[in-house]
Amino acid sequence: MPAPFTADDTTRLGDTFAQVVADGAAPGGVIAYGTTSADPRFLMAGTVAPECGESEPGPDTLYDIASLTKVVATWPLIGQALDAGLLDLDAPIRDFLPPMNSETPSGEATVRQLIAHTSGLRASTRLDLYRGADLPLHELLCREPLEDAPGQHRYINRGYILLGLALAHVYGHPLELLGDALWKTLGMDSTVYGPVSRTPQVAPTELRIPGAPRIWGAPHDDNASLLGGIAGHAGVFSTPTDLAVYVSRLLTAHADGDKHGLGEWLHASLVPQAPIEPGLDRGLSWILAAGGRVAYHHGFTGTSLYLAPDTGRYLVICTNAIYGGNARAKIAPLRELALKTISAT
């Protein structure tokens, strides 16, 4: 039986969330929490954003989930492609992209290295520098020299851009259609690649230029925007309800011993691939903590997913903390408490 959250757990989370919002870290947001044995519960704080008037965030507020795209879109699609024999974890990514006519040092990185951030690819990604190029994007990326020897952990978005391009190629369908089909199967009815309409149900993000419109409904990530909002590393919008459905389905599949689906893929992804820092390792996409008992991932806009397969518990944080600039430091107390809470046995 999954271990439920205690009243003390939820009180601490609620109080810390309210304080973080009161301190100006985010206009507001939603925490979804629960276990596989019950419907999710929600903690709300603040407002969606000043542009939305007094609208309060709720389970169906749509958030730009930023790098959670890596574990909500790219990671599960890779698991499906591996099961279908369309990808090989230990083969170079160039094998799963359209043919190229030049040297491709970055194309030698394996699928495993890309998904585990151990590829050695150049970390800085500026797709705007490719404007007007004659070659297709996958070849431009693969032609880039390596920045480090493969094997060391370094968080690299361009690896997931390549993975998104490879998924579209091996399936013969655009990435957004692959995502839509996945989310429909999982019951995630509100999850989509952006852009989306500007409404009070959509959380605005950052004001980049004073006097210009705020980013609202478009992906905050510049590279995702250049790709039309559809990329392997960012671009997805989702709700607290949908994300709770997602992690609950993952945990249920894992507990049921799903041998040919997301349960087995999650099990495989909880094997450490490289150390990040003492106490943290990188699995396949996920960060592993508490001796591998917890997997989590953050999004730059102020979102997070935490799951504990052994206890069947999960936590989802949806905020638009990027509304006022870099979100990491501002919501660190909430993320630290979430990790501590989900790690408790």
TrEMBL record:
Keywords: Hydrolase. The keyword Plastid does not apply. The keyword Signal does not apply. Residues 16-338 form the Beta-lactamase-related domain. This is Esterase. It comes from Streptomyces spororaveus.
